[in-house]
Amino acid sequence: MDPINFGEPVLTRQKPVIAVTDRIDAGYYGSIELYDAWDDLGLPANSSGDIWPAILAVVVRSNHEVPVYHGASSFWVHKTPGAAG
Q1: Which residues contact 54 (CB under 8 A, 6 or more apart)?
Q2: 44 with 31: CB under 8 angstroms?
């Protein structure tokens, strides 16, 4: 995800979460890495962690998880239209 145009602005509510979820659902991102660290000290002080369920729901709906080993991240690739699963 583009952290300058979407990451921080969505977390700080300068942009609605749908600005990101619509792009994910449309396949704008060919792959996505989710790093489950919402307690990250790098997050803006006025950030909101309640966007996580919306982001996760659209990622799971529109993407396949790719197995990775020994990491805090999960990797996802956009589903090909018409593909099973």
Answers
A1: 17, 21
A2: no
Listed residue (17, 18, 32) closest to 62, CA to CA: 32
* Closest of 52, 72, 71, 70 to residue 11, by C-alpha: 52
Question: pTM of the entire structure?
Answer: 0.69
Of the listed ranges 5-9, 32-36, 57-61, the least confidently predicted one is: 5-9
Digit-coded pLDDT (tens) for 72-82: 778 889 887 66
Q: What is the DSSP string of 33-54?
A: EEE--TT-TTS-TT--GGGHHH
pLDDT (tens digit per residue) in 9-22: 777 778 888 888 89
68, 75 in Cβ contact below 8 A?
Answer: yes
Gap between the Cα atoms of 18 and 73, Å rounded: 23
